[in-house]
What does this fold into?
Amino acid sequence: MSFLKHFALPRYCFLAGLVVLFLQPCVAQQEKRDEIHQQLKTLRKASNFQETDTTYIDLLNDLGNELRFYAVDSLLILSQKALSLSKKTDYLLGQSKSFLGMGNYYSDKGTRVAAINNYTKALILSKNIKESRLTLRVMNNLASEYAYKGDYARALNMYLEGIEMAQNKDEKKMLSILNENIAGLYSSQKDFNQALEFYEKVKKINEEVGDDVGSAQTMSNLASLYADMGKLDYAMFNINRSIATLEKNKVLDWLAYSYEIKGKVYLKQEKFQWALYWYRQGELLHEDLEDDRGKIDLYNGMAEAYFALSNDSLSQKYALDAFDISNRIKFLEGTQKCAKTLYNINKNKKEYQKALAFHEIYQELTDTLHRNENKKSLTLLKTRAEYDQQKVALMEENQKALAKQRGLIYAGIIVLVIFAIITFFIKRAEKIQKRLNKELKSKTEKLEIQEAALKDSNETKTKLFSIIGHDLRGPIGALQGLLQLFSDGEMNKTEFFDFIPKLKNDVDHIYFTLNNLLSWGNSQMNGSKIKPSVVSLESLVDENINLLSEVAKAKAIKVVSELNGNTLIWSDSNQIDIVVRNLISNALKFTPENGMITIKAREKNDLWEVSVRDTGVGMDKMTVEKIFQKNANVTTYGTNNEKGTGLGLSLCKEMIEKNGGTIWVESALRKGSTFFFTLPKAENKYSQAS
It folds into this structure.
């Protein structure tokens, strides 16, 4: 069965062609393998590379597929590795492709049970994830394996099922392959008319697709069929056209098959030297291939040609090589052909005992295959007839059901028309009223949404202008006035330098206010998006203590962090940085000189509860209730008349809640305040993200 065609691979086994000298080991196919190797190398060098990346898994399967006829053991190794990685990440598409690759490996080794098991697993997975193209590939290869096993009924049924699916999904390339493999089944039964009927379908599909290489592959199979029919002129015409295209596209495996077919045509013409010439071209190409099935007919053909030229030693060598391969991969038809050749060789050499042994093998296999041929022919015809009958019966049942439905529909239409006439005017009024009510409701909802949006926009604008006017205009105006006095000569350098500490404080206040203002504006107008990651809260607190150290030093306030290194949170680092800075800055603002600020963290289930405690002036109950309100603008001066933005705490509340936490305050006048907030722990969140 050397005719079967696998998707993106040769028909099943072997190939043939002309002028090997310019080819080298298939340039186009080698370039493809090199390209995949380079992509794998680039992926591995990436800093964030993980073996479970689906792109990496797909490349492993692609490389195995490309190496099938060049390094078959690599196909198995790569498929097994891809399967292991796919299972780790529950990547079903990768698993299906891996099982397909292992099925191809065991098929080429002649291990039928393992091949069918792997193909079946690939088919189940591809159907579950609804990958129709992959499903068709697996169905084609599984059907081919059933054909090699001798289960022709199941093979034909699966081909026909695949054809129906390919038609529904408009997968023309697979439609061509499936029809061509059915043609091969009929060709093996010497049912040449049926085979030619399917080849005609294949030729039309190839023309629609515009696949030159696919058409050349089909012509190779047609040439083999015509050679078996004795139409050697047709065979030579098709094989020459096929070789021209395959050489142009440098398709090594198919060229090997095409060269072998051309040798076969010359052998049937009894032009034995020419036959050997073309067989040798195929043999040269097979040096770079691992395609045992493809070598059987090639070596047996060479044995027949050498035998015809009275070179019994070479004839016997090639016949024995083909015989051994056939036995190893359990290919009965190949064993039968080789046994016949070896019988003739040993008979000619007068080694009658060996000749008799090979004759017995040949006769036994001929009887077996003859019985199988009869069964095969009947099975193929019966299976196809049953399939067609089922389709016809189903169509007839559908027609009857449709006719019955049409009768019911007509009766229903009459009733509906009568009912429609009676209720027309009532329904018309109701529909108009409903439409008007719906339009009114829709317009009302739109107005309410627009009103709410306008209200929010006005509130945002009002608060923005309030902050700019209240907290930025004053320091900027003072800075402008001071610079104006200096530039007008009304203030000398000494006096100007005396104001430097105040200028620095004003600039720090403006920077801090602008930072809060920009963060708040972004959250209000654009809806800020959080980007959580693992954050060390201890490091973040230490950085802000250092940042505000000069302010603390100016008021002799001691700022203490009691956080340890394992205080890891799952939050947006930038947002929590703003929260911590605001809370510490607030505490410094409202804590008198020689005070103390303490930052602690307490572990609670899957949260960290963080507290910022000060020994400041504290707040009354009314202020505590209003301080976190969205539109509150509680702005007060600190113990040293420090200025605030009035939006720091509302901004803190927004950012804590967006990061999955809560914030609150406990305070008493003249005793100080403690601000609490919670954030998710990093352990569970990080493991989920990984």
About this structure: The chain is about 70% helix and 5% strand.
